[in-house]
Structure to design on (348 residues):
């Protein structure tokens, strides 16, 4: 069937790179910024970067296998749309139109008329279904996301890191019933996150290991002025990008400067027992050729400041300590505070 949506995607009026907001005290943004990540961490990064980037591209991991995304992935053999949806929602235009569509994309259906074990739409996000519909009509994930971005008047472009759904796995070191340490292999993002509560993740891998990176994503890394990593779950949002050889090589070869935003919290969930400096150690162990220019760390959240500075220096970076947590919830990044910190890091 011929798609009714073929042809070059027209952007709505006023949605070129020059149409972005500018935070207080910031000059009109001109930098080309490419952000890598997934989930809530990438959304927080994008909410800040939209204020300081002249041209913004989000590259999103595609290894999610839980919730609505996991169901759609298993039943339809497509990329998991959830993290892509969240990135689009974070980039929605700051108008009634954009805010409304952000809520629509994030809206989840709740089944009330049938038992939970019989419900088929319960907890599905409407945005996931919209994105998959565009993929089916257009036949290409990148084209579908561009049309979704145009509908939302997104302040930037969202790209999957690969057109191939990825599976993340790892080894988890934990104590067995007899108290002895044992290593077990865990496959799947959700399973890995759950298992990490019981022990320490000692190895992470992707399959297929030779999955090709999206050429548009590699180009966005090559052409960027700045590449931003984090915040986000270390093993399931940040590290998967570095596990792809093409992406790792592109990050090492790009002329762009590289910035890492550290998490506010650490040592819980999948990083049990790790401090902020350990996050940088993990990155360096998986991507020894990766160089950083700036690491942004929250001045209140980081207790091991000297260790963070030492690890950052090993990767070629200076540490910019700033207050980037929300005043209402210090465990969540404040978009404007983070935008100011990133703007200062990029201009000094």
């Amino acid at each position: 069937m011929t798609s009714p949506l073929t042809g070059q995607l027209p952007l709505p009026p006023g949605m070129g790179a020059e149409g972005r907001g500018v935070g207080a005290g910031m000059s009109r943004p001109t930098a080309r910024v490419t952000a890598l990540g997934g989930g809530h961490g990438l959304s927080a990064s994008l909410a800040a970067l939209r204020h300081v980037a002249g041209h913004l591209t989000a590259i999103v991991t595609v290894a999610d296998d839980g919730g609505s995304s996991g169901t759609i992935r298993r039943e339809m053999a497509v990329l998991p749309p959830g993290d892509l949806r969240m990135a689009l929602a974070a980039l929605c235009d700051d108008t009634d139109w954009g805010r409304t569509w952000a809520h629509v994309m994030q809206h989840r259906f709740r089944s009330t008329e049938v038992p939970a074990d019989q419900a088929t739409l319960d907890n599905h996000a409407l945005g996931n279904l919209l994105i998959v519909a565009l993929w089916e009509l257009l036949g290409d994930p990148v084209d579908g996301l561009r049309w979704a971005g145009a509908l939302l008047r997104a302040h930037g472009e969202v790209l999957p890191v690969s057109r191939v759904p990825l599976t993340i796995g790892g080894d988890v070191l934990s104590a067995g019933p007899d108290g002895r340490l044992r290593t077990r292999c865990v496959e799947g993002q959700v399973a890995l996150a759950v298992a990490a509560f019981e022990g320490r993740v000692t190895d992470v891998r992707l399959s297929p290991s030779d999955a090709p990176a999206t050429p548009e994503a590699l180009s966005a890394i090559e052409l960027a002025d700045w590449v931003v990593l984090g915040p986000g779950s270390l093993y399931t949002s940040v590290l998967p990008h570095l596990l792809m050889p093409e992406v790792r090589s592109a990050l090492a070869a790009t002329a762009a400067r590289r910035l890492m935003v550290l998490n506010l919290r650490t040592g819980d969930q999948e990083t049990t027992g790790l401090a902020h400096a350990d996050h940088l150690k993990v990155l360096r162990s998986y991507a020894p050729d990766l160089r950083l220019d700036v690491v942004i760390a929250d001045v209140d959240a980081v207790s091991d400041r000297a260790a963070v500075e030492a690890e950052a220096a090993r990767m070629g970076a200076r540490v910019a300590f700033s207050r980037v947590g929300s005043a209402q919830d210090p465990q969540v990044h404040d978009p404007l505070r983070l935008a100011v910190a990133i703007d200062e890091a990029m201009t000094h």
